[in-house]
Amino acid sequence: MAKTFGAESTADEVLEGVNLSGKRVLVTGVSAGLGVETARSLVAHGATVVGTARDLSKARRALAEAGNPAVELVEMDLASLASVRKAADDLLKRAKPFDAIIANAGVMACPQGKTADGFETQFGTNHLGHFVFVNKLVPLLHAGSRIVTLSSAGHQISDVNLEDPNFEHTEYQPFTGYGRSKTANILYAVALDNRLKGRGIRATSIHPGGIQTELGRHMTPELVEQMMARINRDAKPGQAPAFRFKSVPQGSATSVWAGFVGPADAVGGHYCEDCHVCEINDDANSRVGVRSYALNLDHANALWRKSEEMVGERFTL
Predict the structure, then answer these.
(1) Does residue 317 belong to any structural domain of this protein?
(2) Is 151 a catalytic residue?
């Protein structure tokens, strides 16, 4: 009988009894938080892990604190397409295949700014950087491989705005920018899965849960207060709040579940949290499930075309 996992499961619990020997996994963002724990748990269960980080010294320190898992490091700044393309090209030259890519890195609710290429920081980093990086590495994937993009319940804040992705004509709000980028992460997985499933490669998106990591380094007390108010505003008197933080090991569980444990046909093209596939829920007062706009294939393909236009590169997968 298959084990059942949930919100309190950890990555190690999900991978208990799973032998990843011979598996090669790429994890972006292994300099802090979920990236470090995801890499550690994968190595502990036999996988070979390649991790990317903008700051390699920081990544080495973080991995050392996690027990020195054997992680091969590649320098990459998702906020620079030149850096993204160099990292991808270097991996392509090595020609070593991957069994999974976990697009973990990202930023959250940061002040308004631009990437090196002039994109709004959150959309450019969380979506466009991974869009180019993962697409370029598809030749290294084989039938049975999986791609996991980390999204968030924050996608419920906002759909993508394909007419104004860089907030050039709309007022910038940190959480709106975050919501747009997290919806983009889901839509990207939908479009990617549709393009690759015929070759036996599946893509999925996940919400790791709320975790207190460096992802929230731009969160002022005011933004935290706004976030908690939004999350708990519909909690009924006498009931527990609608939200509570997870530990980092718990936050890493859904990434490895979607990548190695959940059935491929179940997770492919879908959005997962707490180690299960979510159902569509368009109730604006609910944090449960996934919004329908984030799983719409036509919408996903429109984002794909807009993303190609923005990065100046076409991908025929």
Answers:
(1) no
(2) yes
Catalytic residue among 80, 178, 188, 271: 178
Range of the domain at 157: 11-311
Q: Does residue 5 sit within a domain?
A: no
Selecting among 9, 31, 83, 151, the annotated active-site residue is 151
- Total domains present in the chain: 1
Least confident residue range of 8-12, 168-172, 207-211, 267-271? 207-211
> Percent of the chain at pLDDT above 70?
89
Q: Which of 23, 136, 182, 246 is catalytic?
A: 182
Q: What DSSP string describes the chain?
A: ------TT--HHHHTTT---TT-EEEEE--SSHHHHHHHHHHHHTT-EEEEEES-HHHHHHHHHHTT---EEEEE--TT-HHHHHHHHHHHHHHT--EEEEEE-----SPPS-B-TTS-BHHIIIIIIIHHHHHHHHGGGEEEEEEEEEE--GGGGG----TT-TT-SSS---HHHHHHHHHHHHHHHHHHHHHHHGGGT-EEEEEE---B-SGGGTT--HHHHHHHHHHHHTTPPTTSPPS--PBPHHHHTHHHHIIIIIS-HHHHTTSEEETTEEPPB---TT--SSB-GGGT-HHHHHHHHHHHHHHHT-----
- Is residue 182 annotated as a catalytic residue, yes or no? yes
272 pLDDT above the threshold of 80 = yes
Residue pLDDT, tens place only, 43-100? 999 999 999 999 999 999 999 999 999 999 999 999 999 999 999 999 999 999 999 9
Q: Output the domain CATH number for residue 274.
A: 3.40.50.720
Residue 22 is assigned to a structural domain of this protein:
yes
